[in-house]
Design brief:
Layout lengths: L1 H5 L5 H34 L7 H8 L5 H23 L1 H4 L1 H4 L25
Helix pairs in contact: 2-4, 3-4
Length: about 120
């Protein structure tokens, strides 16, 4: 609702499309990065005798799958921190009151103008 109130109707489609594009482009990037990160960094570090066993082994265990478990924990915590940042930063928390609403076009009488469909006749 905040996007519809703050963005002019004539550009809402473009704005919503860009928002969707940004949200969806992260999925293939995450997929491309997560596999190699798990196989080459997290899993070896949490094998028996790995570099992170003493630090994170108590949390996710050691051995096969522990690296993916740690990645799961880290991404979950990142999501929580992003959500909290939306609350902790007043500029984000009060965006609805700080940003002006889109003002609807009015006619000379001060009433909201209503768009009239254009009908063209074809032969």
């Amino acid at each position: 609702a905040i996007w519809q109130a703050k963005v002019a109707p004539d550009v809402q489609g473009r704005v919503f499309a860009v928002r969707r594009l940004i949200a969806q482009v992260t999925a293939p990037i995450a997929t491309a990065v997560a596999g190699p990160l798990a196989d080459r960094l997290f899993e070896p570090a949490l094998r028996e005798g790995g570099a992170w066993v003493g630090t994170f082994g108590w949390l996710v265990g050691t051995g096969p799958g522990a690296g993916m478990g740690l990645m799961f924990v880290i991404t979950g915590l990142a999501g929580v921190l992003i959500g909290l940042s939306g609350y902790l930063f007043p500029v984000i928390r009060h965006a609805e009151t700080l940003l002006p609403d889109h003002v609807a076009a009015t006619d000379e009488g001060g009433e909201t103008a209503v768009a009239t469909p254009v009908v063209t006749e074809t032969a």
